[in-house]
Amino acid sequence: MLFDPTGVQTWRLGESELLTSTTELSQRIDELEALRLRMVHEVDTRGTAKTLGAASTAAWLSGATRMAPGAAAGIVHLGRALTELADTAEALATGRISTGHAKVVTGFFAHLPHGVPADASPSCERYLLDAAAADNPVELARRAAALRHMLEPVEGSIPDAENTELNALFATVVGGRGLLKANLDVETMEMLQSALSALSRPRPSEDGTPDPRSPARRRADAFTEVLRRYLNSGEGPVEGAERHAPVAAHPGRRPSDRRARRPRRLRTTKPGVGRCCVPGWCRCGRCDRLGTWDCGRDASSGSRPWCLPGAVRNEPGGARLDALARTHLRGRCPPDRL
């Protein structure tokens, strides 16, 4: 079965044989994963991946096996962590525990409370390994959390649920889409849920049709609305010479498109302003913060709204000017205004 898995006809197996084969196959997979972990760690120790031109062992493993970069990095990090836990590494190599159990054990020792004596580590490791013989990784993680709570000092200690030093937020872009991953304390999580709660409620249409959006979609829309309101409020910190402002989106255009980066002629919504360059970005000394960039028009006749052709939304003039200045001029004054 292991040498020719594609030739196995599962419908021919009896119930007893099917259950036994599935259990044996799962154990064999755990043994093979443990072997792969040791081999990848040997590659990482020798530095073989870098001699082949790879940026790291995880990058080589991801490219050679079409594995997800996060999964490849997890294998490399687990192999490094097991070098300090000899009993856990031996249990994994002999098949007594799985890689999931090993991740729980290494994660426990990676976040030990301060002040735990060094001689307590071996007994904690033996306790977790004994529990892993009967518990799955999820149950073992609960035991590890309870053990960590027992080891915390009574006075002056901060539980992990309230420790802000453990907070982390990861933002990556994959395939043009943004991916967020966060590890927050309970107070910050409560603030986030309070901010999203009212905005993520279902909103039926006027004719009574239920909201077709999924709960995940409603939370994403609520998160977007919170960011938009924060940026439009003007209460954010100053970065460089200007505050953060919403960037006008161009439908159907890539950020690398030259046409999307081409400056446009703009009109200001502020009355009484003539020719000038982008506010806040020119250093020639002749620029008004309420002016426009090389528009060639006199706006003293009144306030008229303007928008960028093809923009998704029409932001206030000041915010749009700042966004275009940051996008097109990169902080430089137009050459004809110097």
Structure overview:
By secondary structure, this protein is mainly alpha-helical. The protein has three domains: 5-162, no CATH class; 172-204 and 211-233; 247-338, no CATH class. The chain contains twelve helices and four strands; from the N terminus they run H-H-H-H-H-H-H-H-E-E-H-H-E-E-H-H. It has helices at 15-46, 48-51, 57-65, 69-81, 86-93, 99-110, 121-132, 137-151, 186-197, 215-233, 258-261, 317-329; strands at 168-174, 177-183, 238-239, 242-243. A two-stranded antiparallel sheet has the order 1-2. Strand 1 and strand 2 (177-183) form a beta hairpin. Helix 1 (15-46) packs across helix 4. The termini are far apart.
Task: List its traits.
12 helices; globular; 338 residues; two-stranded antiparallel sheet; mainly alpha
